[in-house]
Amino acid sequence: MTGSAAVTEWGGGRLGVMVRSAQELFIYWSPPTAHSLILQLKDLSGRPASALLDGTGRRERRIPAGQTSIYVGALLPGHLYEVAIGEQREGAFRPLMEAGPVQTPWLPREGEGRSPELYHRS
Amino acid sequence: MTGPTLMLVLHAHLPYVNPSGAEILEERWLYEAVTETYIPLLWSLQRLLAEGIRPRLTLSLSAPLLAMLGDSALMARCRAHVARMAELGAREATRLAGSDLAAAAEFHRQRLLEVGATLDRSGNDLLTPFGQLAQAGSIALITAAGTHPVLPLLADDRTRRLQIEVALQIFEQRFGFRPAGLWLPECAYAPGLDHLLAAHGIRWSLTDDAAVRAAYPPVKGAVLTTPGGVALFGRDQAVTRQVWDSRGGYPGDPAYREFYRDQGYDLPLDEVAPYLVEGWVRSDTGLKFYRVTAHGPGLMGQKEPYRPAEAAAQVAAHARHFVERLKERTGPIVAPFDAELFGHWWFEGPAWLEAVWRLIASEGEVAVASPDEWLAAGWAPPLAQVPPATWGAKGDFSVWVGPANDQIWPELHKAERAFWAVVEGRAGAPPDSPLSPPVLEAAGSALLLAQASDLPFIMTGQTAVQWAEREFRTHLDRFWAALDQQAPAMPTWKLPIAQAVVATAPKTPPDGALHILMLSWEFPPNNVGGLGRHVHDLGKALVGLGHRVSVLTACMPGERPDEERIAGMRVRRIARPPETDSFLAWVYQLNRSLQQEALAWANQAGPFDLVHAHDWLAGQAGMGLKAAWRVPLVATIHALEQGRNGSINSDLQAAIHEEEIRLAQTTDQVITVSEAMGKAVAWYSGRIPTVIYNGIDLPGTVVAAEASPDPYFFFIGRLVPEKGVQVAIEALSHLPPTVRLLVAGKGPMEAELKEQATRLGLAARVQFLGRVTDVDRDRYLAGAVAGLVPSLYEPFGIVALEVMAAGVPVIVSETGGLREIVTHDQNGLRVYPGDPHSLAIQMKRLLTDGALKRRLVAAANRDLTERFGWSQIAAQTIQVYKRIFTKSL
Predict the structure, then answer these.
(1) pLDDT at position B296, please?
(2) Strand partners, A5
(3) What is the pLDDT of residue B430?
(4) ipTM for the predicted complex
(5) B624 — pLDDT class (breaks 50, 70, 90)
(6) If you average pLDDT over every residue of chain B, what do you get?
(7) Whether the predicted pLDDT of B625 surpasses 80
(8) Residue B662 to residues A28, B620, B667: CA-CA distances in angstroms?
(9) Which of B161, B197, B235, B397 would best serve as a mutation to test chain A binding (most A beta carbons within 10 A)?
(10) Alpha helices in B545-618 (DSSP H)
(11) Is B155's Cβ below 8 Å from some Cβ in A?
């Protein structure tokens, strides 16, 4: 876990999860599928999870057919997240691929959003 | 250095641009930076040196910039550009003579001539004078990672290492040495990166101050040491924003030159056309004749003329203000900036720097130092872990991962994986893999160039977006073409990929016996739990299979470091770090010491083929050695923090939990001692462990039993809630009054347990023995009706094997590894965890059923031989090691 991105490849498919901010992940996968998928987010921190996750620290979301990326927000700073894409079969989530964990930054900068305009070389 | 010490770091970097034909707009980025930043900075530093002032500025020169400044053709184009702009400047000075812009125009004309003269004197080579300033002790030079990638956002540690190594090789080739510091592009850091940096000899880097303020354990001050031993200097927001804040900072002063208004846009097109790209693309000329006035939309035309003399006066005032603020501070003040901020954006920036340095030198109240010097002075920043961070607008990764640029990441990660798959000759690699050097260089160079942070950053803006998209596509197309073994279209900048791949590749696995380094925080006789004994017995068995085992561990308090041979192993004990307020900081220090000792030990004991770390307590040392030696790391995770305490309820627990997951993620293979632990580790880390049970040595002799007139049950273990002694005491209350319970062990719950026994009227029937020797343990066990293991949580439960080995029935809770060791009514008895009635029922059975007792003991004996013998466990462990080596071939 050296980075803020984790990628899994399996059978020609790919699932990537990237930390965007303390509250948001960018998740992508390939190839696109002709049917809808389920995206499952798992909080591995062992700590009280975001209210948006269920009692086991999971959140599931249906992904429309053809979509290949998504931003998942309302997460908690400093938590460890793993993502899986899969299908709902016989009432249960069946993962096709899992990627992670990645860790969101903890304690985001005070006064977020009030930082002066960023200078950059270009 | 208890007073204020200014550590100023300028990071000079530009996106790599190398035009092969007609002039393109983007190459002017270099020309502007040369004209407005690099040369004025050089002038200031040279003037100061002539006066004997050495500002100890740390200057980071990124590899792309080194490539461009070292490209004689490109620099010749730069010189020609300066000449053209000087010509335009002369025309403007003539045209504007007598107007209120005359002073500004003349100033620019003169300045461009001086820039041209400097280029001529240096033969268009600016790197040599900067190198001379470094040799004179005026500045310290470092570089930045490779093509300037946001390292944490890459998919693979091998690519991160490649980016680091490439930059160091380029820098070394130019300046003849490797720097101890490395600029992390965008100050982007994530835990674990420190080990990679340290493996390449990097001792320090910089990050944002928010990350340092978020460090755990919390630290005071601006500098800390990561668990991997890299000093991280946090950007001082209070000081630096004075410079980079476009509104409240110095550059917004109305005396200073306006950045946004340029003659390239003001002049009629036909007048300026000869000086524009393709004769019509309006762009900056560097001739900026107005000052920072009339803010707001539509007010560009109302800005007031620039007056160089007034600006110079304000530079002096701002330098005084800055130095006075520094004097109010103590300790290190870390001030990193993009170099191009000075001169290019804040035109007067280099003059201001010069004035600051001159004031500091004349007054002597503020020290200046490079991070190198500061560390060499013996400062030892506290150990702590910092969160993932950047110096982007919100301190996170959102600048580089967002709707404007997220399309690049799937492609980059795919290319990254494909590169390594082919380099390592896997996944359908062509028959002649590994890649031929030209193809490797072409593919690697294109991949690394596509990873530059500039490209996603520019995609978030409004200018040059198409250029960034085109560059990205060009690099990736070249990458795939090269990888497909087509004629490799070599990028214009060929990176030293082949040498860097060799320098970062895993070590060749050994042919025969392995030399294994075991890392453990405890080792007999220093046993806190069962971990030390496990390491001892496993090591001894590995030696028995013909392998070399060296064990690095810590002394008991009060002991002196030593080295001895135990059961064929070399065992070295290092000094135990002094206790600190923070247990985590103590563990980090222990790991730093273990790692440093291991690095030194390898010189004497020979190279190690593999590192095997036991539990997170030795994890950071294991991760560091894996990176340093490029050898596999195996970790046995004996227990998890979440299991030990039932949940994660504190910051310390959370940090330990993260360390456990970090270790599991970094190792080449995780081993757990039970299926139950394996499932827990897989859940939390996503890694699938190999389960290898704990083992036990069968006793060679029959032990004399403790003489007791009354039947008794025996417990041994730490007196902590999860061991369940309280359950055993309550169960005793349901048994006949002649039955006793002997409790061996110490722990924080001892007083509470004694009080419980008294409260239940069992004080005379429960005997607390304190710590007992192995001999006494066996003696007590031999006379017992049964050994009790009533744990509420037990990752494995070695004590159950010890009971079985003593030839005594065992009663265990149905929890964790105990469930896997004991099959109810076959080789022992199982009870519900935390249920005294359940325990009492099984205890009663053994009090009355002699046949059951004999049957259980016989079955347990068979199991010990067939499932839990150390020689078998060692053989399974060797199989794990060999699988890793096979994978890395």
Answers:
(1) 76
(2) A18
(3) 44
(4) 0.89
(5) very high
(6) 92
(7) yes
(8) 23, 9, 9
(9) B397
(10) 583-605
(11) yes
3-state SS string over B426-478?
CCCCCCCCCCCHHHHHHHHHHHHHHCECHHHHHHCCCCCHHHHHHHHHHHHHH
CB B597 within 8 A of CB B624: no
Whether residues A2 and B397 touch (CB distance < 8 A) is answered with no
**The tokens 């407005």 sit on which residue?**
B36
Q: In the numeric block, which tokens belong to residue B639? A: 């227990």
CB neighbours of B353 closer than 8 A, spacing ≥ 6?
B8, B41, B44, B55, B57, B342
Cα distances from A32 to residues A37, B131, B410, B477, B556, in angstroms, run 10, 52, 13, 22, 58
Q: Report the alpha-carbon angle B552-B556-B558, nearest 5.
A: 125
Does residue B62 sit in helix, strand or coil? coil
With tokens 């006075």, the residue in question is B324
Q: Which chain B residues are Cβ-neighbours of A18 within 8 angstroms?
A: 153, 397, 401, 409
CB contact under 8 A, B406 and A119: no
Phi/psi of residue A92, nearest 5 degrees: -130, 155
Residues B722, B771: Cα–Cα separation, whole Å:
18
- Could you write out the DSSP letters of every residue in B533-548? HHHHHHHHHHHHTT-E
Q: What residue type is assigned to position B409 of the chain?
A: W
| Residue A109 backbone dihedrals phi, psi, to 5 degrees | -55, 140
Q: What is the β-pairing status of strands A25-30 and A69-72?
A: antiparallel
Long-range contacts of B572-577 (CB under 8 A, 24+ apart): B572/B597, B572/B601, B573/B523
Q: What is the pLDDT of residue B20?
A: 73
Burial B256-282 (b: 16+ CB within 10 A, else e): bbbbebbbbebbeeeebeebbeeeeeb
CB B190 within 8 A of CB B157: no
